[in-house]
């Protein structure tokens, strides 16, 4: 059975995840091809030694099974592409680096991307198309929604609930909650680079600083 894998997006995110994808296929002893999809391409080309094509050309490729990792930083674009893939019968592809640490009782939905040096500890539930960049971790008893993005070096401590489409900036620290009062990062919230979050963050706001405070528009 012929299989074709793809990284959707040939920007920095996609080019950083392609080596992770290659690692995974080697680990699984799968010799299938992995290509880039980028809608900026009008004809099939090459990026970093891999074929690169637009989505229409990818659909025309002959393969019994096609699986795609959506390497797009913008979570709402990820969601839109995920819906299109589902309509076309293409599965979401999860990729994990060789040195990712996964502990006990973890549920991770399809389409996730775990970069090198990511740690997911125990009793954790994560939604689809989660991106965890370099050196991020998720501690015990956390629940993470769909289309959540961690920039590099995020420290997500225990008993934290992160709702859909939240973005956690590089080096941000989220204080541990308690089982009866978890810290909640609301849907679509943005936690700025280096922020130290000590309490729950409402949906849709941006917080910055130490301790993190809501960024007011001027």
UniProtKB/TrEMBL annotation:
Catalytic residue list: 140 (proton acceptor)
Site, Increases basicity of active site His: residue positions: 141
Organism name: Acinetobacter celticus
Protein name, as recorded: Acetyltransferase
Database matches in InterPro entries: AcTrfase_PglD-like, Hexapep, PglD_N, Trans_hexapeptide_repeat, Trimer_LpxA-like_sf
Domain PglD N-terminal: 6-85
Family per record: Belongs to the transferase hexapeptide repeat family.
